[in-house]
Amino acid sequence: MKASILPATAVAGVLALAAVAHAQSQESSDVKATVKDDAKTVGQAVEHSAETVGHAVADKSREAEHVVAADARVAAQTVRDDTRKAAQAVEDGARTVGKTVKEDAVKAKEAVAPKSTDPEPKP
Q1: What distance in Å separates the CA atoms of residue 11 and residue 3, rounded to the nearest whole number?
Q2: Is residue 41 part of a domain?
Q3: Contacts of 39 (CB under 8 A, 6+ apart)
Q4: Model confidence over 76-104: pLDDT tens digits?
Q5: How confident is the model over 29-53, as a mean pLDDT?
Q6: Listed residue (6, 14, 64) closest to 39, CA to CA
Q7: Percent of the chain having pLDDT more than 90?
Q8: pTM score > 0.85 for this model?
Q9: Which residues, 6 or more positions from 80, have their beta carbon under 8 angstroms from its beta carbon?
């Protein structure tokens, strides 16, 4: 970016100094016209350089945007997959805990309930 603007700026400075030196030696309308044309040429060169740099920056920005978007898609897919795995693990854990609790409840109920082989308590 600096490489494009530096030559144009240097040309503008040299032309400005030449124009001032030339204008001091002669005050004719031809000199003024030449200075005006030179200034216009330098301005157009600077404009062209700035436009070129602007397009280069826009192109690089677009490329970076595409890279970021691709990375974001990959990250989203990874998060989605990991979330599904975590949900499955929680579901499996809950199922195992529920089964264990149910089995323990049945065992506790059987331990508290009177067995048919036990004699009936006398009133």
Answers
A1: 13
A2: yes
A3: 15, 16, 19
A4: 999 999 999 999 999 999 999 999 999 99
A5: 89
A6: 14
A7: 55
A8: no
A9: none
- 104 lies in a domain? no
Contact 8, 43 (CB under 8 A): no
Q: What is the pLDDT of residue 33?
A: 85
Would you say residue 29 lies in a domain? yes
Q: Is residue 94 part of a domain?
A: yes
When divided into structural domains, the chain yields a total of 1
Enclosing domain of residue 50: 2-98
In the numeric block, the tokens 């929680």 are attached to 90
Q: What tokens appear for 99 in the block? A: 């089964």
Separation CA 17–CA 89 (nearest Å): 78
Tens digit of each residue's pLDDT (9 = 90 or more) over 3-26 = 556 566 666 666 666 666 655 555
Q: Is 46 exposed, middle or buried (CB count within 10 Å of its CB: 0-12, 13-18, 19+)?
A: middle
